[in-house]
Amino acid sequence: MPKSSLCDLPGGIQLSDWLVHGRDGATRSSPPELAREVLERFGDDRIDRPGTDDFLCRETALPEELHGEFLERLLQGLEAKRQAAVELLARGGWDLFLVVFKESHCVGHEFWHASGDEVDPVRDVYRRLDAAVGDLLAQVGPDTHVLIFSGLGMDANYTAEHLLEQALLRLEPRLPRWCADRMTRFEAVEARIRRRLTPRSSSAWLRGLRHWYQVEHNELSGAIRLNVRGREPSGRIEPGPDYERWCAFLQDEVARWVDPDTGQPVVESVVRSDEAFRGASRSGLPDLFVVWSRDRPITGLASPAIGVVRAAEPGFRSGNHVADGFYVLAGPAVDPTGPGDAVGIIDLGPTIAALLGVELPETAGRAVV
């Protein structure tokens, strides 16, 4: 399992951070000897090990010369997890058996551009993954409930993330466009230098001169932070009505952006984090998220306020997340007739708990059986 701390499971076992996407640490288990056994017999991850040469599932596109090695290691990892999962399932006596395969996710990030081609790595991995699931299902009886799901989907990684900073500079109050463009070039050079020295992507003194700025985020949506007095070290926007006015201004202006070549909108929505999210640490989030339209490539940004903004793409991966995942649920308690219920990811936990005859405390989801 990824993203899972170890629990005390009487009569159970848990294996965490082995052959997972975005691993957080060394492979570990309860009981501890399980991790040692699995690593000795099946080997460690050769794709998702940040800080080593075995880090191929990166946040940028892989060079073409690494494609073959990446795909080979991905399939080797899938086979290793299939073998380990089949053996563990065969031990029997499980109330719940849960295994996560990362390979469909990783191959979608790096090879989405080839999906549908005669040689299609995405299709090949999906077929191998389907066979692995079949091997697991072959070991369970008719009284077993089976849930197969993906928490998200994958699609082409069309984005304007690399254009956002220059566009935001052009919206700065009383800042001439020529000055905004020079600041963009300067900040790009300055950011490359600073990334070699410190994790921060932009210096505090440059941000202190501005009313808003881009903060690092996934290509799915641009992230904007307002420079608020009392919250940021050199705030320029007063909390309250002034903040509300500038948020509304940015939402309105950003929503007007179109592709200069097609005239089509490039922004699906502009989300205010204080309206979308809850929690004590909400103020640490970006103030606005710019959700990019994903139905076609974005060649630039254009509007009366910013003119036309273009820049070379820095080498994004060809595939990225979309919100729609899927689930398949089968078993004695499931009515197989008609369409299944539309569910959210938060409903899967309560559904599994209901099938086990228990309830999850403090959850917003609902059981669908």
Please give a structural write-up.
With 369 residues, this protein is of the alpha+beta class. It folds into three domains: 14-156, no CATH class; 161-316, no CATH class; 333-369, no CATH class. The protein has helices spanning 32-42, 67-90, 103-111, 121-137, 164-170, 177-197, 204-208, 241-255, 273-276, 348-355; strands spanning 14-16, 28-30, 146-150, 153-156, 212-215, 221-226, 267-272, 288-292, 301-303, 307-309, 319-322, 326-330. The strands form five sheets. A four-stranded antiparallel sheet has the order 5-6-8-7. A hairpin with a 3-residue loop joins strand 9 and strand 10 (307-309). Helix 2 runs parallel beside helix 4 (121-137). The longest helix is centred in the first third of the chain and has 24 residues, at 67-90. The protein is globular, with a radius of gyration of 24 Å. The model is unreliable at 193-202 (pLDDT under 50).
